[in-house]
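Support reply, case 0932

Customer input (verbatim):
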Amino acid sequence: MKLLLAATMVFLLAINPAVSAEIKPEAQSFAAFWVQFKAAAAKGDRAAIAEMTNFPFDDGSKVSKADFIKKCGEIFDRKTQKCFSNAKPVKDDKRDSYCVFCGETIFGFAKVNGEYRFTYIGIND
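Our regenerated output:
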């Protein structure tokens, strides 16, 4: 009986890594992220944008989620929403990140803990 129990435990432990490997979600592509982010920005959906943003958010200072949600309407004003509808993200080949240029503003996106996030906003110099 002990031998059967021991054999069963070894079997379960041996297959466990294979099972958990199958359950892991695939890495999110930037294209999929961009479709979701662009749609949220077009609607002015502050909550959805915040869910796809890395905090503390870098806008020259470190902004909390609550403060970001308050400022979201300023960041994604109508001009920026229009820009995002046609914007083509530019990949940074040195890092797994992308930038979107809207006039004098750069919107940065990067992988954080395996998922793409809106990571910073800055001045296009």
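We compared this against your earlier run and they match. Two observations from our side: Residues 2-23 form the longest helix (22 residues). DSSP finds five helices and six strands in the chain. Please reopen the case if you see a mismatch on your end.
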